[in-house]
Each structure stands twice: as C-alpha cells, then as structure tokens.
Amino acid sequence: MRLAAIMRAVQRFTVTIEGPSWEDVDEVELLRLPSEGEPIQTKYGLCLVTSAEPLSDTGQYAGKIVCRIPG
Questions:
Q1: Which tens digit of pLDDT belongs to each residue from 5-41?
Q2: Long-range contacts of range 37-45, CB-CB < 8 Å, 24 or more positions apart?
C-alpha cells in the first residue's frame, strides 16, 4: 500500500487511559476502531481496550476509546 493511501486510511480517536487511581485523556491515530480486549499503544505504553465506539458525526474524531493499563 502506498504511503498516501495509508495516510488517508488513518483515523483519529480520543482515548481515555485508566490507571489504578487516575485517568488521562489523549488522542491516537489508528487504521480502525479497535475491539474490546485488543491492545493499543498509548503514551503510557501498551493498554487494553475496555470499550470503543464510533462517533456518528463528521467531526475530527472517528470514535472514542477507553483503555486500561494492564496489571
């Protein structure tokens, strides 16, 4: 796949990262919305998706993801 095609396929998502006693919100760029239980890379390392939903509007984000740090 050509680089231009890959760049068009990348989507932006908001991600809420949950730790033991804290949470943070960030954004990630992925090719698709992940499924529950899938790992994704965040600024805190690898996290597991606990929920993911597409957003129906045509805003700048394709969906929202909630994930947790394993452990």
A1: 555 689 999 999 999 999 999 999 999 999 999 999 9
A2: 40/15, 40/65, 40/67, 42/15, 42/17, 42/67, 43/17, 44/17, 44/19, 44/69, 45/69
What's the pLDDT band for 59 if we cut at 50, 70, 90?
confident
Contact 64, 34 (CB under 8 A): no
**Which amino acid is located at 38 in the chain?**
E
| Contact of 55 with 63, CB cutoff 8 Å | yes
- Alpha-carbon distances of 32 from 9, 15, 25, 69, rounded to whole Å: 8, 13, 19, 20
